[in-house]
Give the backbone structure.
Amino acid sequence: MSHTAHIPSHRKPRRSASKIALRAGVAGGVLSTLAVAGASGPAFAAEPVTETIEMPTITADLSTQVAQSADATQQAANSYALQAEQDLAVAKAAKQAKADQALAEKKAEAKKKAEAEAKRKAEEARASRSTERTTLSTASAASKVAAPASGSVASVIAFLKAQLGDAYVMGGTGPNSWDCSGLTQAAFAQAGVSLPRVSQDQSTAGTPVSLDNLQVGDLLYWGAAGSAYHVGVYIGNGQYLDAANPSKGVVIQDLSGYPATGAVRVL
């Protein structure tokens, strides 16, 4: 015991039991409340948040990025469309080029065939002229033929008129196609006169006569004597009969339309 405990004024008063109980009850209540609050803390944490959260504001940079992205997308779409158009144009051009090439090849083939045909005809014409020259060479000894004592002009004219309408064919000697000298040679053969085969030599066969003094049956020629390129026979009244050309054939024509260069008399 304290050395001052026997002094009443220095002794602490004893607390009453009721106050101690009250304080104990308050303290217990507080502790209980804290315990309940602690136990219910997680439940309260699960409650939805009622605070307003402010969203970030779209800045100018973000707007620019969005616009640029849209532009890039549009440019890509335009690029794809342009590429598609270019691919279509290339395909059309290739198709047209193929068609043009086929047409060019077809024309080239046709030209080649035409050239081959022209060459063949030229070779045939050369062969015909060569044959004519050979015949001329073998008949050169008889190229100068005098008029025989006998012979009939009428038979010559009759033969010529019988051939009217026949075709003209270079190198033709009958019976249905003639060239100019082939017809006159065959006609004068009817009167027993053997003329050379070609017009060049026929133009110097017999006696030269003036064109102002022609008689029926005189042999007419065009071109110089000895190098004439055409012959016919005078039939009177300013007309002559000849194997003219491929378009006319054997016909009667007027001297006024195509005057002869000269004439020879073989009958």
In short: The chain has five helices and eight strands. Residues 60-138 form the longest helix (79 residues).
